Every structure is written in C-alpha cells, then in structure tokens.
Amino acid sequence: MIDVLPVMPAVLVYIILMKKILITLISLLSFLSTQAQTAIHSALNGHSHNDYNQNIPLLRAYYAGMGSIEADVFLQNGKLLVAHDIKEVTANSTLQKMYLEPIAGFFAKHKGSVYPDQKSKLQLVIDIKENYGAAIPALIEALKPYLEIFDAKHNANAVKIVISGDMPAPADFKKYPDYIYFDGRPETKYTAAELERVAMISGSLSDYTKWNGKGTPTPQDAVKLAALIQQAHHQQKPFRFWATKDSPNTWIELEKLGADWIGTDHPEQLQHFYSERAKTTFINPTKGYAPYRPTYKSDGGLGKVKNVILLIGDGMGLAQIQAALTANFGLLNLTFFKHLGLSRTEASNSDITDSAAGATAFGTGEKTNNRYISVDPAGKALKSIPEVIADYGMKTGIISSGDITDATPAVFYAHQPERSMSREIAADLGTSKVDILVGSNRRSFMEGANQHLLDTLAKKGFTLSRTLKEFEAAKSGKQLVLLDDSVTRPVKAGRGIMLRTSLLKTIDLLSANKRGFFIMAEGAQIDYGGHANDLPYAVTELHDFDQTVAEALRFADQDGETLVIVTADHETGGLSLLDANAKQGTVRGNFSTDDHTNIMVPVFAYGPGAANFIGVYPNTEIFKKIIRTLKR
C-alpha cells in the first residue's frame, strides 16, 4: 500500500489531462466541420469600420457594396455630429447630412430599396461615444422624417439602425422604438425578448486570442473563436470581431472561423477581394492525378545524350508551381526532379522580358529586344537550336498548346523583328530546319500572302494534318499539324490531352532518327491564365503541362539517352498565394499585375547531363548547356 499510494495521483492527473485533450480534439473536429459549412462571403459581409474617416464617407462603402457601415457620433447642441474624437467634431459633420439624407436619396432612386438589387440589405451602425441617454432620443428625432426607410414595418427593405458603443442595459431595450436595434456582446445573457432587439453579436478579437491577424490562430484559439461565433449563430445572430487586422489573410481566416461581418477601412479592396474570388480560388473537383515516379537510372550521369526534350511552361513561376502542387493534393511530377537551377530572364532592352526575347535567349543563346523573334537587337538573324543540331543529323519537333505562330514556338523556326507578324513567321517554316510543327492558327498559313504556302510546304516534304487523329496516323516524314483553334481552347473549357498526345506522337516519329532529336513542347496557356489573373485557368493549364512532363520522364527512363529540361520564359501575373490546403486541394492567390515580371524562373533537368543545369544563370545559358551536352 505504501508503494501504490503515491502512484494514484499521477494516474488521476494523466486521466484528467487525456480527458482535456480528447475534449479539445472533439472541439477541433467540430470546428473543422463547421468550416466546411461556412457560407461564402461577398462584399455584403463587409463592415465599413470608422466609415466617417473615409475621404468620401458613406459613398465609398456604398459603391463597394458593403452590407454594414459604421458612424461614431457625439451629441452637441441637440445634433448628432459624426467623429471619432470630440476634438474632431465640426458643425457640418451631422449624421443627417453625411448619412441619413444620402441613404434617403438612394431609396428614392431605387424605389424603396437602398441598393439596386432588393436582396442586398444595409445596416447603419451608430456608435454612440458618450451619453446614450440623451443621444438615442436625439437619434429617434432625427429619424422621424425617414421612418419609411429605417423602419421595417413601413418597408421590408429598410436599413437597419444598430446602436453600438455607449448603450443602455438589455433590460431597457424595450424602452426604445422597435426599429432601433443594438450591438450585442458574447458574454451578456439575454432574455428572448431582449435578444429580439439584438442585431448582431460583437467582440474585440484581442479579448479572446493573441493571434494578431497574421498567419493562423493556434488550434486551441481557433476552437475558442469558432465557439464564440457558433454561440451567436445558435442565437440566430451574425457575429463580428472588432479591432482586427485589415488584410486579406485576416479576412480569409475570419471567414473560415465563420464570422459574418468582416471589418475593413478599405471597402473597395474588400469588395475586389470577394468579387474576384472565382478567378483567384481553385478547388480541385477531382481526386487529382498520380505523378510518374522516375527510376533515376540515367539521371545526372555522364552518359551520352542523344535526345533533348525542352518543355516550356510559358509564364510559369514558382508560385504557379506551388499553386498547382497544392491543388493536386501535394503531388506534381515536377517535384521528382533532383537537378534544379534558376534562370534570370532579362531581355536586352528591359529587365522584364516577354516571350519573344525570353524564348530567343534559350533558343539561340543570345539576348535580344522584347518582341524580337530569333534576331539580335540589330535585327540580324540568330542561329537557333534546330539550325545548329541539323548539322549533327538531329531532327526537330515544335509543339504548342496554343497559337503555333506565337512568340515561344516561333523562335525555333522563324526570324522576324516583330512577334505579331504571324504570316511572315508561318512562311519562315519553309526555310527552317524543323521537321514537325504542331499547334493552332491555321489561317496564318493560308491567308493573304500565304494563300499558296501550304502548297509550297508540301513540296518541301511536309504532310498536312488538320486533326490530332490524322497526325496520330502518320508513319514518317515531315509533319505540319494545323489544328482548329477550338482544339487548343483552355483545359477548363475542355481541351483534353492535346499536348500529351502531340508530344508522344512526335517522340514516336522522331525516335526513328538514329542521330537523335530535339523537341520543344510549350504549355502556352499557363501564361494566358496569368495575364487574365485567373488562378483556376493557370492551375489547370499547369496540371496539363505537368502531366506532359510525366510522359517526357517516362520516355527518358525507357530510352536512357534523353535529357529532359523543364523551364519557363518568364513569370506572368506576379502571383502570390494567400491561402492553401493541400489536403483539400484548394488554393487562393493574388495577382499583382496582368503582365510579366522579372522574377527568376526554375529550371528542372533529368537524365544524362542534368547536373549541368544546377545553379543560377542567365537564360542564354540554357541554349549553351544544351549544345555543350550534345557535343560531348
């Protein structure tokens, strides 16, 4: 007994601790479950905090579609004056002039509704700074001419008046007209009658957590905050935290927690944040795809390089790759590369390149001006990879999931001083060293001065295919595959596996050449998604591109003499990621521009010679490394 007694308290403590942990886990699971059910927010969830401090009070928040607008008031000489501090009060800043009259004007304009859409409601939160006993009667007097606007008995679309700040005790709510509502508190116990007069429940964020809006709250705090919100929801009341950081990250986290009102001093930014949700959020509706697992048998060695497959993700930066990785539940073929580098993308006339100068750099090994296609800054033609390797007896295939006369693919078969010269670019195929060309924009090969170009190309040995099925039936020889523009529509619009199909058939045809081949395949529309600031567009295109990478890796493993290089000509959109969940396949981003940036882009290499691509270097080095590898 003497030995057992001291053990008993420890056992009890252990049991109590385990019970607490279990309760916390159950609460956390409940919280996560409610997260999945949280309603999607819009600008109507915006609460324009300290709205009177805007350079244009009311109107900025109104035209941003906020559902709640806040004005602090002081009572002076019988008038309610709008200001945060008594020292800021001016005689002209009356609640009537700044808020009541303009709101009445909107009601008249929209025939009984504050917003054009009658489903869009508004609450006006009046934060009384002091002396509610005198201020509320003054407010009631000020509202008398506008009761059809602020009293739901007169109008179902009435603007709700909500008193906050210095307020009467809940037991006294009944002393005021029933169109006057109050801002409730989480810790206050309300009777059923009192609760009917509560418009929302509000609390200061700092009273419940040390989380300051950056990053995420701890799991314990997340449970606590969500519980506060759920308590309000059980009372059938919306919830608002005040004193929150005013940033996209905070808005996201508050929405996840279930908060109904999102406070902001930047209503236009909040409105943009929510209105762009469809373009900045990707939710994978599938189970994703499994990546190919390379064997690494020939990876990084000094063996012979017979073939080179260069895969260009146009506009693909690290943020786009991370977004695609997250959206595919943490898996990408790109993540299985062991040899990685970074490419600097500057053009000769600008630190921010376009596709023409960017592709020229790794297509010819020379810098040039933006918009130039395989010509130097003086306009002199530069020798491209297909022209160099033709001397080695190698064959070339060029593929794009977009316009085949666009800048990136054009670099490998044309020489022009302007990327928009699509007909001239098409005509250059006749003097190029390219054996297979696959993409869309057939009209540039047939219209205007090129009306006889297809006949000329046929005489030079090219067989024309107008569909992928025709191309797949080809047995040998030069191939010109000019697809309907609809075949290169976006993946999210139903393009299918055009890029993978084209790469596999091109490999099949060119593998017959004993001296080897060079293939450039471009995922063109990752760039389009960046220009459109459309994250789902960019992610679905990158997934398609990444699955094409898998086919290149698979062939490289089977062949043993193939070097695979994956890179980008530049990054497009200045993408940053605001929220991500690889377990759920969801990601949310923000674009800083609809143009290119000069952020370095990754270079992935696999196969013999892959180690040569490690490091940080100008994009011109990609050409030089390829040629050195082939000469070795």
TrEMBL record:
Any one Gene Ontology molecular-function term assigned to this protein's record: phosphoric diester hydrolase activity
Q: Tell me the cofactor note.
A: Binds 1 Mg(2+) ion. Binds 2 Zn(2+) ions.
Any GO BP? lipid metabolic process
The protein's matches in InterPro entries, at most eight in alphabetical order, are given as: AIM6_PI-PLC-like_dom, Alkaline_phosphatase, Alkaline_phosphatase_AS, Alkaline_phosphatase_core_sf, PLC-like_Pdiesterase_TIM-brl
Q: What does the record give as the active site?
A: 355
- Output this protein's name: Alkaline phosphatase
What keywords are annotated for this sequence in UniProt? Hydrolase, Magnesium, Metal-binding, Phosphoprotein, Zinc
The top of its lineage is:
Bacteria, Pseudomonadati, Bacteroidota, Sphingobacteriia, Sphingobacteriales
Write out the residues that bind Zn(2+).
314, 527, 531, 569-570
Q: Which CDD domains does this chain map to?
A: ALP, PI-PLCc_GDPD_SF_unchar3
Q: Which SUPFAM superfamilies match?
A: Alkaline phosphatase-like, PLC-like phosphodiesterases
